[in-house]
Design brief:
Layout: E1 22-24, E2 50-54, H1 61-77, E3 80-85, H2 92-99, E4 107-111, H3 114-121, H4 129-132, E5 133-149, H5 157-166, E6 172-175, H6 181-193, E7 198-201, H7 205-213, E8 219-223, H8 224-232, E9 236-241, E10 267-275, H9 280-294, H10 297-305, H11 318-339
Parallel strand pairs: 2-3, 2-4, 6-7, 6-8
Antiparallel strand pairs: 1-3, 4-10, 5-8, 5-9, 5-10
Length: 344
């Protein structure tokens, strides 16, 4: 069974917690419970606040997913978690900070598919995904949607392909910057359609989608965690979801295969990382807390409203996460090389 088949029906996107929100799961002093885990300082883990670093802007899809799991993870760990947004350079700034952080379990990175594309995009990355981090586990795999301003002329995905081929010089394709999921999906669309379009990069998917709703750009790819609300409110036109099966929260939206563009298949997987050298018992404790969070009914319901679902428990492990990352590094290296794209 694919992960996309687990998506549940819901109406609107959940409200995103503010960027400075503090997630606390215990009423006590924030110390750990009686089980397991020691950090590099020798005390029980966690005995102080854990920081989850999101390398993208507050309110974006990755930030939203992070805040969903922070509270139940904190409850399992017996401590408290804060979410910090460290954006820039397609997620590489925040990832680099975590790679250089003390390997004690108190600095955790939430990253998406961009972890597997960065080495192909950036010449001086400053870290290596497989060598600079310990994997904690996968979190979710989010479908993407192809959406347009609501008055855009093409009515179907096949109409869109025909239209952009005939009007390539004037059609604008928005994205959240080089290496962002929206950029990668846009590259695949152009490859599948056999066209080169004028791309308009933004500092995050939030402002890109705002301009799409406002009619300043023509179309874009974006995650269901960011578009479900606008689709339900009919603020944008939707052409397809980029997964093999339809999404439960968007049952009337066809897949790209159904809509005639089967080459356009991509989903945005998310995972948790800690710096290389983090003690194995700390990694294990974080992984167990992640599994608990992903089994939490509130998290399941929140994700369903955004057209996604937690990964199965067997995927929320360091081993499954490392396997996924290795496979994706190879896949995207070829796509990006074929597209001739490099980050500035």
């Amino acid at each position: 069974m694919t992960w996309t088949s687990r998506y549940r029906t819901a109406a609107r996107a959940i409200a995103v917690i503010g960027a400075a929100a503090l997630v606390s799961a215990c009423a006590g002093n924030g110390g750990a419970g009686g089980t397991g885990g020691t950090a590099s300082g020798g005390g029980a883990y966690p005995d102080r606040t854990i920081t989850f670093v999101v390398p993208f802007s507050a309110g974006g899809p990755t930030d939203t997913v992070t805040r969903m799991i922070a509270e139940p993870m904190g409850a399992k760990l017996g401590g408290k978690i804060v979410v910090q947004n460290v954006e820039g350079a397609g997620g590489t700034v925040g990832a680099g900070e975590v790679a250089r952080a003390e390997p004690d379990g108190y600095t955790v990175l939430m990253h998406h598919i961009g972890m597997s594309t960065a080495p192909a995009l950036y010449q001086d990355l400053g870290y290596q995904p497989l060598e600079s981090f310990e994997m904690v586990g996968l979190v979710t795999e989010v479908p993407m949607t192809v959406v347009a301003r609501k008055d855009f002329e093409p009515a179907t995905l096949q109409d869109l392909v025909t239209y952009v081929k005939a009007n390539a010089s004037k059609v604008t394709l928005a994205n959240a910057g080089i290496g962002a999921a929206s950029h990668l999906c846009g590259l695949l669309f152009q490859t599948a359609a056999g066209v080169k379009l004028q791309e308009v990069p933004y500092e995050g998917t939030g402002p890109a989608l705002t301009d799409l709703v406002g009619g300043q750009v023509d179309f874009m790819c974006d995650q269901t965690t960011n578009t479900s609300g606008q689709i339900s409110a009919k603020e944008v036109k939707v052409y397809a979801v980029t997964t093999p099966e339809r999404v439960g929260s968007l049952p009337d939206v066809p897949t790209t295969t159904e809509a005639g563009l089967p080459q356009l298949q991509v989903s945005v997987w998310h995972g948790l990382y800690v710096p290389k050298g983090t003690p194995p018992d700390v990694v294990s404790k974080l992984s167990e807390a992640l599994k608990t969070a992903l089994a939490d009914q509130k998290v399941i319901d929140q994700m369903a409203k955004l057209g996604t679902a937690p990964v199965p428990a067997e995927a929320a492990t360091p081993e499954a996460h490392r396997t996924k990352l290795q496979e994706q590094l190879g896949t995207w290296a070829k796509v990006i090389a074929d597209a001739g794209v490099k980050a500035g």
